[in-house]
Design a protein that fits this description.
The chain is of the alpha+beta class. It has 5 helices and 5 strands.
């Protein structure tokens, strides 16, 4: 398996949060993630597909693992369930706690800049892309 040939899986922005998420993937604690549908639209990127392999990158840009997508759904933020929130491996114990953390990230200056909207906010009807994955390889 050639890591350099795979598309990148980047979790959060480089820094402490990405390092935490990558460590959770490598430990097996993190097996799901959630992104904003509008993020894919703004970047003009296709949605991920089941079976897709991606190279997980750390904050230094190193390809440290390979994951395979096992499920992809587009749902309303209000429809994210506890099973998915727990599988994100970030220590949240409720959907409300999970959502609060994600809203903080999605409302951050970095995320708003990436989306090109300094006033961007999410609500219950915001469409999100939930992904489940399995760890295939650790570099």
């Amino acid at each position: 398996m050639e890591l350099d040939d795979l598309p990148l899986a980047e979790f959060a922005f480089p820094g402490p949060l990405r390092d935490k998420l990558v460590a959770a993937i490598l430990s097996g604690a993190k097996t799901s993630t959630t992104g904003l549908l509008i993020g894919y639209e703004c970047a003009n990127e296709p949605l991920p597909e089941v079976g897709q392999l991606s190279a997980v990158v750390d904050s230094a840009g190193r390809r440290v693992a390979v994951i395979e997508l096992t499920e992809v759904r587009v749902i309303r933020l209000a429809d994210v369930d506890l099973e998915h929130a727990l599988a994100e491996g970030e220590g949240d114990e409720s959907v409300a706690q999970w959502r609060a953390g994600h809203e903080t990230f999605w409302h951050s200056p970095e995320m708003r800049a990436e989306l090109g909207d300094p006033d961007f906010t999410v609500d219950a009807n915001t469409l999100v892309v939930t992904e489940r994955f399995r760890l295939v390889y650790v570099a």
